[in-house]
Structures are given as structure tokens and as C-alpha cells.
Amino acid sequence: MIPYARHSVDNSDIDAVDDALRSDFLTTGPAVERFEAAVASFILSAKPPHAVAVSSGTAALHTAFAALHIGPGDEVVVPALTFVATANAVVFCGATPVFADIDEDTLLVDPASVEHVITSKTRAIASVDYAGQPCNYDALQAIAQRHGLPLVADACHALGAHWNARPVGTLANLTVFSFHPVKHATTGEGGMIVTSDSELATRMRRFRNHGIATDARERQRLGTFHYAMEELGYNYRISDFQCALGTSQLRKVPAWLARRRAIARRYDEAFAEPTEITPLLRNDLAEHAYHLYVVKFPNAKTRNHVYDELRTQGIGSNVHYLPVYLHPFYQKHFATRAGLCPRAERAYQQILSLPMFPGLSDDDITRIVAATKASSRSPG
Description:
Blueprint: H1 11-21, H2 30-43, E1 50-54, H3 57-67, E2 75-79, H4 84-92, E3 96-100, H5 111-117, E4 122-128, H6 137-146, E5 151-154, E6 162-163, E7 166-167, E8 174-178, E9 191-195, H7 198-207, H8 216-222, H9 240-250, H10 253-270, E10 278-279, E11 286-287, E12 293-296, H11 300-312, H12 328-334, H13 342-348, E13 351-354, H14 362-376
Parallel strand pairs: 2-3, 2-4, 4-5, 5-8
Antiparallel strand pairs: 1-9, 6-7, 6-11, 8-9, 10-12, 12-13
């Protein structure tokens, strides 16, 4: 079976985890700080941003919104086509996600739709770098500044991507990354928030540790037992052995990004001629990270047939995503209904994510392309 995504772990990763397990710290120790520094430097070596590591990408989103004091009565604009965590993290804060529609060619949030749904209750804008392609941050920042709103970038798909020659991680007030196994580097489960704002970074470090200002290692260094919970927080800490794995993985990301882009070029070339298969449009200003490679079919019947046929041939694929507001939870608790974001709903009926991970061989790609083309010509 060729999965749609797969992690890569080698002996250097195993050795790094082994060293951490043999150390004096299994959590809130030096490996966490090293991983934060490594991610910050990876994003921008000249002047690294502040980086705060947490237990998952979802925890990172929640931590980011909490740092902005998002709360009951507030609204946050989020793209309709994203994983549920983007909107769920707003709900965790007691606020309401308001859904913006997408651009049909890229599946990225449409800046005009973002501006259209802003109200007097809006307290932040969240973008999503769908599939690994950065959003139009110039347009989104202009809207955010015009309305006096912070911009939170959900860049869980986009580690190593750039917009207009600027690295993702420097384009928003807060940027969130994920280190789930299918992402560009993994800690098993893990997330990171990066920001240039030292006050926000301090607030987030406190939030991930129950709202307590100092952790055990800091108290040991200060020679004190006293600690104080200054606000309500969560246990969103990440372990040292996870961070040791992440630091080891991060060293390989440039090579893995190059391989992902090479795979994408192979797909692009294979699907270039007019067929039932249409790759997503890539913006000329974007340097894509290719967490996913997504194609569109004319309709749900063809897409579903291709999905089923690939599966019978041992090729995994997936659909990213059902528009968030169509999930039963949102329909029940926020009274959302079909028709809210027509372009996102139309895209959901057409899209399929083909296998994309550095371990794919050239023979694998040839097999995937042939099977996808053949099944798209005979939708049943």
C-alpha cells in the first residue's frame, strides 16, 4: 500500500531520542529550548522570532488565540476549507468562528471574502496555508491593518514555504506550525507558535504551563519552590524526547522539501495536458512547501470513483476537507448551513489529495499517475 502520507525516521532520530531519554530531563528541559531555537533559526537565521513549543498543532492554535485574549462575544474570521482545529481553537476560547470563502483555483482563503465577513465583533483573522502554499499575505495584512486586527497564520502545512521571498513564520503576528507525523518534520505530536512579539511569547509560555509563570527547571535554577498561577492555562507542555526528535528531523527538512517539490513537478508534468484532472494553481509569488498535492475532478462522481479505484490498487488518497461549518457540531451549535461558502462546498465535491511524502520513489509516482489517469477516464 502506498499511503497518501508517511513519516520518515532514521537511526539519527532514534539516537537523538535515546540521548534525551538518558538525560536528566524528560519534560521542560534543555531539549525543548534547543528545538524552539532550531525552529526559529530555520525560519529566519538573521533575526530569529520567538518560538514556543507545545503538545500539538491544535494546542498551538489555542495558545495563539488565547494570547490575543480572544474570548466570549468575540469573532474570528477563519477559512471555510481547513482542518477543524483552525476553527475549534476559536471555540475553545469561547468565541465564534466566522467562515470566509476560498479562491477556487488555489483553495486558499479569498481576501475579499475575509473583508466581507468582518464585523464590529471581529477580533482576529486566521489564514491557512492550504496544502503548503502561502496565502496572499500582502492582501491579508492590508485588511488586518485597515481594521486594526491581528493576523494568525495557520501554517501547519507550510514549514519552509515563502511568500514574495519572505519566509512563512514572519508574515503574521502569530504563526502556528504542526509536527504531526504527516507534516514536514515530526515530534510524534507537537506544535509551535512563532512571533516577533516578546510579550505574546511570554503569555504563551505561561499559558502552556497552567498559567504558571515559572516551570520546574526555572525554579530549580532560581533555587526556589514558590510558584504562582497568574491566569488560567492548560498543560500544553511538550516532552524533551519529542523535541529531541524534532531537532533531529529539522536538519533533514531542506532535503525533504526539495524532494516534495520534485515530486510535485512530476505530477504537474503528468497532469499538464487537458484531462479530467486539474492540479491546483500555484501563485508565482509563492514558494510552495507541498504538504499535500491536491487535484480536482469535474464532479463528486468522478472523484469518488478515482478514490475507490486507487484504493483497490493499493494507493492511498484523501480528501482535504469537508468545509468546517458542515460538520454536525457546527450545524448544531452555530446554526451553520449549506450555502454559506459556495466555492468551498463546490471544491469539496471535486478535490483529492494524491500521495505526497519524501519516501515516494519515481516508480511509485509513475504508478500513481497511471492509475489516477486510467480511473478518471472511466468514472462508472
